[in-house]
Design brief:
Elements lengths: L20 H4 L4 H16 L5 E10 L2 E11 L4 E5 L6 H8 L7 E6 L2 E2 L5 H8 L2 E4 L11 H12 L4 H14 L15 H13 L5 E5 L7 H18 L2 E6 L2 H7 L2 E6 L2 E6 L1 H5 L4 H8 L4 H4 L13 H4 L2
Parallel strand pairs: 3-8, 3-9, 6-7, 7-8
Antiparallel strand pairs: 1-2, 1-4, 4-5, 9-10
The protein binds adenosine-5'-diphosphate (ADP) and magnesium ion.
Amino acid sequence: MQPEQPPANGRAARPPDRHDPSDRLRQTPEMKREREGRAAAASAYDGPIARLVGVRKAFGALQVLRGVTLDFRAGETTVVLGPSGAGKSVLLKHIVGLLQPDGGEVYFQGARMDGQPEGRLRRARRDIGFLFQMSALFDSMTVEDNVGFPLAEHTTLSGTERAQRVREALATVGLEGTEKKLPQALSGGQRKRAALARAVILHPSLVLYDEPTTGLDPIRADGINDLIVQMRRDLGCSGIVVTHDLQSARKVADRVVMLYRGEIIADGTFGDVERSDDPYVGRFLAGRYDPTVDDAPAAPPPASAPAASESKR
Ligand SMILES: Nc1ncnc2c1ncn2[C@@H]1O[C@H](COP(=O)(O)OP(=O)(O)O)[C@@H](O)[C@H]1O
Ligand SMILES: [Mg+2]
């Protein structure tokens, strides 16, 4: 039998594990109590991690979500595919209460999110990591302060304890040693990694990824896909990945849903969606442009006649 070797690249062998007693030792009693409370609440609830029921949202005359009903199952990574402007980011923002629906209901772990006071949303958001579309790091703050920001906001950990947690989170995403750098000194892929470290530093139950691979070359994109798979496997968190990157969807998804013109038009495994007989799904997966549909303005909400999108996709 081989003796255990430290990893050749010097990276941490594994990310912190909430079930490992040696990792638990690094938590304050307050964090431990809070985690146990959350674990108890989560184990008492075995429904979908997030749920949309008949969610409608318009901006002025633009109907973005037209009654979206969708359960996101716990422990799964669900990919939401759809063209630019389909409302994918809008959908994610409803889950964390950054946008309010015009109609319908939004739940996180069985608790209502729409129409809730800010204090209640804040507590729920502590358990949701959000990787924003443009990484959204604070330019004037070091990587360490960016990644440690949720700890400063939501915990009473000391500076030394925070630094230790940040070091671990950076090792998890392969960015060790970048603590003192400013975001502009990082490449696009590294900024995504730093933003991901920040999104998961509180070990959330759900991570929302908004276009995690957009703007990256295929190799760096694949590195981010690996991390998404790793987050689910090692931290046990559920994921919702919004993207139009098919390669990414194929790699990370347990389930794929497609959002088009405000509605869910496909739902299943990647293979199921590939076999969909919806004409738009087929064109999207094949990357086949149709100028009569793709550059036409979105159909207005149906009045008496069925929506134009019904007739041709
Ligand atoms: N806060 C907002 N105010 C007005 N329009 C918005 C707002 N957020 C999104 N939109 C519009 O809603 C549509 C869907 O946006 P978005 O969810 O960002 O699309 P995507 O699927 O590319 O993420 C777009 O036409 C966008 O311009
Ligand atoms: Mg978007």
